[in-house]
Design brief:
The chain is of the alpha+beta class and 206 residues long. The chain has helices spanning 31-35, 53-59, 109-117, 119-128, 139-144, 152-195; strands at 2-3, 8-12, 24-29, 39-40, 47-51, 66-69, 71-72, 81-84, 91-93, 97-102, 130-131, 135-136, 146-147. The strands form four sheets. It has a five-stranded mixed sheet. It has a three-stranded mixed sheet with strand order 5-3-9. Strands 7-12-11 form a three-stranded antiparallel sheet, with no helix packed on it. A hairpin with a 3-residue loop joins strand 11 and strand 12.
Length: 206
């Protein structure tokens, strides 16, 4: 176990959504992009915004970065992670988010994504968050978190295993969701048909 700050750098974004004529046009990775996606990239339906050249340099996203939600209205939504899998020069991290950039040769971004998804690790961030109606994660708490840090080769094995398993689970979930959607449509159609006399329900045993 090691402190995260020994295996990665981290910074909190200050890039807001307010456009400025004197700034550079960028594609902004926002809170909802991270919250609803396990992987983020410029191909998502991103907000068009602006940033200064210095902000682009400091908060531009690189492949292998992990972006986490730093602020939230719900304590349980603190530090939800997403992995940057593709990037461009204008792909920038937005406000209410923090960028964690693994040290090359020490920590894999794919592995970091998975350990931050672990409730055992994530609980550290939730406990560190402060607030009453809105919660915020102090920057220092990011680096102070303890993470399991096996050798890089083992990190890749763990990430490969979880990538394969989660793909199968996601595919099954999608099939189940599609089936539920069809059943709901059938249910609605059945109710409509019965109450409008399109089918004869007399003598039918439920």
């Amino acid at each position: 176990m090691r402190r995260l700050k020994t295996a990665a750098t981290y910074r909190v974004s200050s890039v807001d959504k307010i456009p400025s004529d004197v700034e550079v046009s960028v594609r902004l990775c926002n809170y909802t992009d991270v919250y609803y996606n396990e992987h983020v990239h410029p191909g998502l339906d991103l907000m068009e915004a602006t940033a200064t050249p210095d902000e682009i340099r400091r908060f531009g996203l690189q492949v292998g970065d992990v972006v986490i939600t730093k602020d939230s209205e719900s304590w349980s939504d603190i530090a939800k992670p997403a992995l940057v899998v593709q990037t461009t020069d204008d792909f920038v991290c937005g406000y209410h988010l923090a960028i964690i950039r693994p040290h090359k040769g020490v920590l894999s971004g794919r592995y970091l994504l998975r350990i931050l998804q672990s409730s055992a690790i994530n609980a550290q961030f939730q406990r560190a968050a402060t607030g009453v109606t809105r919660y915020g994660l102090p920057k220092s708490a990011i680096g102070e978190a303890w993470i399991p840090l096996p050798p890089l080769a083992e990190q890749h094995v763990i990430a490969d295993f979880l990538d394969a398993k989660t793909r199968k689970i996601d595919a099954l979930s999608n099939r189940v969701s599609a089936g539920v959607s069809v059943l709901r449509e059938y249910r609605a159609a059945l109710i409509t048909a019965a109450v409008t006399g399109q089918i004869d329900v007399r003598g039918v045993v439920p």
